[in-house]
Specification:
The chain has two domains: about 5-65, Orthogonal Bundle (Arc Repressor Mutant, subunit A), CATH 1.10.10; about 75-180, Glutaredoxin (3-Layer(aba) Sandwich), CATH 3.40.30. With about 190 residues, it is of the alpha+beta class. Strands 2-1-3-4-5 form a five-stranded mixed β-sheet, with helices on one face. The protein has helices at about 5-15, 25-35, 40-50, 55-65, 85-90, 90-105, 145-160; strands at about 75-80, 115-120, 135, 140, 175-180. Strand 3 (about 135) and strand 4 (about 140) form a beta hairpin.
Amino acid sequence: MSALSAHVLEEIRELPAKYPQPRSAVMPALDLAQEELGHLTRDAMSEVAVALQLDPGYVEGVATFYSLFQLEPIGKHRFYVCTNLSCMLRGANEIVDHVKQAIGVTQPEQISADGLFSYEEVECLGACEFAPMMRLDHRYHYDLTPSRIDELIAERRGREKDVLPASGEVARSAGGEVPPPKKTRTPRKKKADG
């Protein structure tokens, strides 16, 4: 049985045509696999290697080198809290402590008891003027406070119960959210015969 869906494998097979070197497709391919599974398994990395016609050791080497790839399960909602200098000076360490307490973990490797949350301290997210800030569910949150962290956790726990539809993109809202740079994946159009 395949670790990755047929749709994702097809997307991965199409990636090399977009790059001058087939190896350049490895990171986007691993990103697709991780997006589908939540983390990269050995089977998923092997399937990426086969789909791209690359050595499995090379694919695993890329996955283990870059910290953006997760090799172990993580929470469905992962807090990426910036602890670089600007954020640290404006209270990032207190934000990290509050996140850990609020989700009930003590280490980045841990997942909350409900399986919904985990956290990671990261270097600069590129918005020092909005410190302290973080990324959560592909959205950037800035000018963080403990009460804002509590709101974000409650929103996600509520969504899990209600299964709300995904919210649309917004510019900057009063709630301190900034959408991430648009990441578009559009299926390739098939050429018509004739």
